[in-house]
Amino acid sequence: MSTDPTLPFRPRLADHVVLRRYVTDGREHVLIKSVVANEVVEIDPRTLRIIMCVDGTRDLGGVMLAAVRAGVYRRASEIHEVLLDLCRRGFLVDGIESGPPAIVPEPARPLEPLDGYTLTCDANGTCCGNYSAIAFLSDEIARARALAPDLLNAPSDRERGLLPIRSSAPTASLAVTMVDGHCPYLTDDGKCRIQLAAGPAAKPAGCRIFPATMVDDGTAIRVSVSVECPCILASLDRPGGEPLIPAGAVTEADLIPGSPVIRLPESIEVTGGRTARRRELRAWSEAVLALCGEVTDPLAAFWTLADVVRDVGLSPPDASAAALLRSAPPSALSIGLPLMLFSSRAQGQEASLQRLGPSSRDRTYQLAVWLARGARALLESTAVEEALAGPGPRLEHERFYFRATIHGHHLATAGLTLERALRDRVLRLVLARQLSRLVPEECAGHPAVPFPLVAVEAMMRGQGLESYLVDDGR
Q1: Segments forming the whole domain that contains residue 24
Q2: How do residues 5-43 score in pLDDT, each as one tens digit?
Q3: One domain, residues 285 and 386
Q4: How far is CA 429 from the centre of its chain?
């Protein structure tokens, strides 16, 4: 008896599946990846065009008709086999996702930017190569094509140069083909061609807003920063930078149109079986922020806070604040399982990028090598113990990371319980400390070498390594 799964009636790629196109030293690669399973499959361009017909609006017959129109018709049995293989791998689901409910802006909501922080961009283009996708909206693509007519303007480029950010259903955001590991609009000397042609206001909204994060906690919009580019930490020693929000901005109405504001739900999951109101989260963060200057080891502080919220929750907030003054790091044994799971993900990421035959200019691959080797070294207990012993020379970077995380409510937007998010930050700091001790020769020229925490943060979100948490059942 056949054990083949049944094809969805109107198939599309699952929301955790991404399609990406890369050009490396002139060679084109198309990958289909499951973020959850960390499975990567390289496909040929013809198969990609069939997959793009699988958008959740068509049954099998409709997919075949669409393939005819796209000029990639195969026999019905061949198309069926392509879809069946995707189904076996867990890549397909049925119909178009309904999507999250529409978010209603709060134009009068006050802004609370991270106190005392300004950004000085080094114009090195590092952030343009830290991610597997650079997002453009349709009008932003049209503007980019007009400003740089030699890129993505030929009919073949229009089709081959853009893919949905996720899944295969129609979406407002599109990902451009990455060339040698970076955005195709990046010049050889690290400048943005769009910005050079028409100024910073012409760049895609996501690029203009980066690295600011904005979270509405029901009282105010906390504006913080994601530590994912070297210039973010380098700016700590550079006065006179630019604010994270437009100068003079006071409320949400003053933000750049399209600014992504995350709205916290009224109920926040703290740990298994315990929740808290978002006003309690705000009070908790204020109590912790008040003692940030007293934190001598941010890694130990994250771990101790995790223990407190597990035991007593967020109230009273003074309990967490007091714990900061007696924080202690975890044992090597207590973080052993997360390290093993992360190491497995990191090795898989390195291997999948290796299959692309990476260019010497591919900074993402350099980061993948660095993290994979660092994580592998941490599987030896002596290396973990050294990392847990203290922050070393980069204490100010870690303290800023701690403050930016707490102020920005980043722990409540990670899709985890607050306790798990705190423990995840511990793992990230362990990795960053190990990376500072081990820099492979081929990675020595990467701009993030002086800022290993940036390498960890960029790869966690930008390359999906944070999905190691899916394997951790705790």
Answers
A1: 11-92
A2: 788 889 999 988 888 888 888 888 888 888 777 778 888
A3: yes
A4: 17
